[in-house]
Amino acid sequence: VHQSKLDFFCKLGYSKQDICKVLENLGQEALEDDVLKELIRMGSKPQALENQAQPSPLKLVARGSCSTTAGLKWLGEDESDCSDSLRPIVIDGSNVAMSHGNKEVFSCWGIQLAVDWFRERGHTYIKVFVPLWRKEPPRPDSPIADQHILEELAKQSILVYTPSRKVKGKRVVCYDDRYIVKVAYETDGVIVSNDRYRDLQNENPEWKWFIEQRLLMYSFVSNRFMPPDDPLGRHGPTLSNFLSKKPVLPEKKWQPCPYGKKCTYGNKCKFYHPERLHQAQLSVADELRAKIKVPLPLGKEEEGCQCSL
């Protein structure tokens, strides 16, 4: 048991010294979830991140930034996955599957619909996290539909199984939500889930900000995966900008004046006048004087002379 846990956390990049220290404190029979939580609490980092000499194990990356090379390396990803203009996508597989199955059936087809939606938009980095025990044959109390989809996505390196095992006939499951938030945070990506992760928000203030700003909720409408067009509310970014590393600001559109050519506000009018594009910005009184060829007042003449000079 000790060697299996040591090998598992060494693959994640943690040093043997830190792992042994945690196992001595918690005991050899400690759950993997508890060991991972203790490693994070004591400030231990994977070796790939340790070489970067960061001041803290969790460093908040600026929005729109792509400076997560170290996190990608220890996760076994290529740097090219982060070179495009779209953010990485991390999907809460259990949440999506149960939502598509109306909270009664673990519908793997719902996961496929979500993956296909992001693929069609051009996303190259897509990860789905599902507990390992979902590979087991379905039971009456936990039905699973289209279970073969999980293996197909796993072969494509899209689906990742979180660890689980049985101890004395009792299933021990690692907390998959922590994997989801951690990977999305490290890759500066987007979390696809209808879960609020309140417990993880209270655990880490930086995760709290990240979850609030990068959580993409969704709905299923007749086997159609539909995220909202305004993920952060009506005053927030559009869906395209939310999923992009470099948001595109919309062009400013001027509202045409409702009075048209009959407008008497002149250059003080805040609306758009297409007929005034090539005209001098004069007040209405000055325009009338120009039409009847009345000389400008003395003050206006001096201003005109100074402008001509």
TrEMBL record:
User: Which Pfam family, any one, appears in the UniProt record?
Assistant: RNase_Zc3h12a
Keyword annotations of the record: Endonuclease, Hydrolase, Magnesium, Metal-binding, Nuclease, Zinc, Zinc-finger
Q: Which CDD domains match?
A: PIN_Zc3h12-like
Keyword presence, Membrane = no
Could you name the Gene Ontology cellular component terms for this entry?
Answer: cytoplasmic ribonucleoprotein granule; nucleus
Zinc fingers, C3H1-type class: 251-276
Q: Name one GO molecular function term.
A: RNA endonuclease activity
What does this protein need as cofactor? Answer: Mg(2+)
Q: Which part of the chain is the C3H1-type domain?
A: 251-276
Q: Which family does it belong to?
A: Belongs to the ZC3H12 family.
Q: What is this protein called?
A: ZC12D ribonuclease
Instruction: Write down the species.
Output: Menura novaehollandiae
Q: What is the lineage of its organism?
A: Eukaryota, Metazoa, Chordata, Craniata, Vertebrata
The gene designation is: Zc3h12d
